[in-house]
Design goal:
It is a single chain. The protein is mainly α. It contains five helices and no strands. It has helices at residues 6-12, 20-29, 33-65, 71-96, 107-113. The chain is elongated and about 55 Å long.
């Protein structure tokens, strides 16, 4: 890892702020394969989080319309968010240390996207 890769790697895992930082890191800042790997992984992690949140939201509305208790849905939503944040933090810290962490189940998609 070079010093110029630190900013794109850091921005790659700021997907919880919005979609702009990972996409900016991928399209405008990532020049090396190392930075592009982290940018791809950050984008896919953010998209996975958003689609999972959409599924949780649909489940919530279905359960609400059927009059079922929503405690389990809220627990799953909170757990989903915590897992997402923890994965972002681990990947960002290791990325800034010059290491790669292939997130389980997600690294296959990163390899396909290259």
């Amino acid at each position: 890892m070079q010093d110029q890769d630190k900013i794109p790697v850091f921005l790659s895992y700021l997907g919880f702020v919005g979609l702009v930082p990972p996409f900016a890191a991928y399209f405008f800042l990532a020049r090396s394969p190392y930075a592009r790997f982290h940018a791809q992984q950050g984008i896919l992690l953010t998209l996975l989080f958003l689609f999972g949140g959409l599924g949780i939201g649909i489940t919530r509305w279905v359960m609400l319309l059927n009059g079922q208790p929503l405690r389990l849905v809220y627990l799953v939503a909170f757990s989903w968010f915590v897992i997402y944040i923890v994965c972002n933090l681990i990947a960002a810290v290791l990325g800034l240390w010059g290491r790669t962490w292939k997130i389980p189940f997600l690294h296959r998609m990163v390899r396909i996207a290259q």
